[in-house]
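Please predict the structure of the following assembly.
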Amino acid sequence: MLFKLTDDQQMVQKLARDFAEKRLTPTVAQRDHKEEFSRELANEMGELGLTGICFPEEYGGSGGDVMSYILAVEELSKGDDGIGITLSATVSLCAWPIYAYGTEEQKQKYLVPLAEGEKLGAFGLTEPNAGTDAAGQQTVAILDGEDYILNGSKIFITNGGEAEIYVVFAMTDKSKGMKGISAFIVEKDMPGFSFGKKEHKMGIHTSLTNELVFQDVRLPKENLLGKVGEGFKIAMSTLDGGRIGVAAQALGIAQAALDHAIKYSKERVQFGQPISKNQAIAFMMADMATKIDAARFLIYRAAYLKDQGLPYSKEAAMAKLYASDIAMEVTTDAVQIFGGYGYSREYPVERLMRNAKITQIYEGTNQVQRMVISGAILR
Amino acid sequence: MEIVVCIKQVPDTTEVKIDPVTNTLIRQGVPSIVNPFDKNALEAALQLKAKYGGQVTVLSMGPMQTKEALKECLAMGADEAILLSDRAFGGSDTLATSNTLAAGIRKIGKVDLIICGKQAIDGDTAQVGPEMAEHLDITQVTYVAKIESIEGNIIRVEREHEEGYEVIDAQLPALLTVVKSINEPRTPTVKGVMKANRKEIKVWTVEDIVVKASNIGLTGSPTQVRRIFTPEQRVQGELIQADTAREAAAILASRLVEAKII
């Protein structure tokens, strides 16, 4: 791995940065305030090809690498990490498992519209009583002739209600525990599939989080993703990749907070000089910058390993754990540098601080990341 | 339909810095972009290609870093990009530049339409496009705000004026310079960007084109830049002060009558 991005990576990075600066940043505060998910912006992101970066051309993608995709999530997240996670949920959590485990027919039918940005994707694993303990699934899928009948509910689902395509996990054989879980592809307009209440969250207001409800949803057998009983494996490998996306989201948040802090500290004059001249403030920002770079290289390494086809589960966990923890620290420090204004909704850093928190929680809490890392090093 | 779009890489700043000794632009440390009006020109070309078929080639003269700007044009959808780059072209004014670009176009061969931005945002001269048309001895229409149609070898365009617009039929081959209002340039997509990276940008040196040495570079540049400055802002309109809107309106109406406007 070289510390230099390829031409492709640099150009995707620039494209995503331009989109974030022109389309996301100008309205993010307003959309955050109104708790508004913008399908229009999500569609624009799709039209630019951001959902197809790391998939082959025959599936509607542009044949780029995971690194380019991760750079795009980072850049989008600098402007609006709610849109950053909309992208990550579509690509890492929905399109990727279909690409990795789907049949050719499933790829043509579901991966192509996701990669081409025509449809949004979502991932349904978490339930009220099955969070970190994902094996405790209560959603069931029972075979009935040529169909599976799906019953149950999922909570905290990113893109829920807007996504057209869902990768959903359900028990097909309760007696087998985690080996009794299977994965399915569910379409938004299937009879019996509805959406519960929209979550009102502390942060990431510009992304949509919803409950999924399945009442006797009839799923053709062709919508089984992977093999019967492979669901847990599919979920875990999908989350390995998703974690790099969440880490990139956290990185974008942290970088945005530092950028705001640098600018503000040079403009804010107290005791006759900009506050950036105070070593107490300048050193805070030196630490923030150092943490951000350390997180960045952990993330890029995980993406690089994934691109090389090498194991990356531990490295993705490290990237997600560290990036989200430092995002929380850096955004808290940024609020401190802004002082009273930092606590005000008139300035962007309080939003970044609220948004950073979720990155320590979703797609595996940071305690789970430590389980993954310690499990790998103590094997 | 063979279309050539001429583009210039310009510094991304409204405050152009000038070297006080050489009176030339200081390019260092300033991010470079494709001249915005040239993007309008490329967008117009891409729209014509979509409607009438053909090929869009982007052409530029400049140092090797101009490749970055050409790459952006390829990412937007241009089929081919050619850079005229040689030390011999250094120090060109608009006349030498237009001579060099015209030689490049002659080398390309059969060209039906050349589209340029109305002017570059750094030099603001608006001379290179029209000069090229003169060198090539083809029709030119400047300040085009709309391309209506192409029928046979006649192109119908709307030419923008301060007081309205003219509808002009021009015979191809022709050169157009376009204004900002003609279109909204497209944003490159990821696919476009990656495709652009796989494309080769041809570099032509002075050896590759047919041009008199006395017509290019510093020797072919009669212009001398004595001084560049930001002109003083024009006098602003008068603001009518009055206690109420009614009074202000009355004053305004009387002024307009005095000026024989109403």
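The interface with chain A takes residues 71, 75, 187-194, 196-197 of chain B (CB under 8 Å). The helical segments of chain B are 36-52, 66-76, 94-108, 128-136, 190-198, 245-258.
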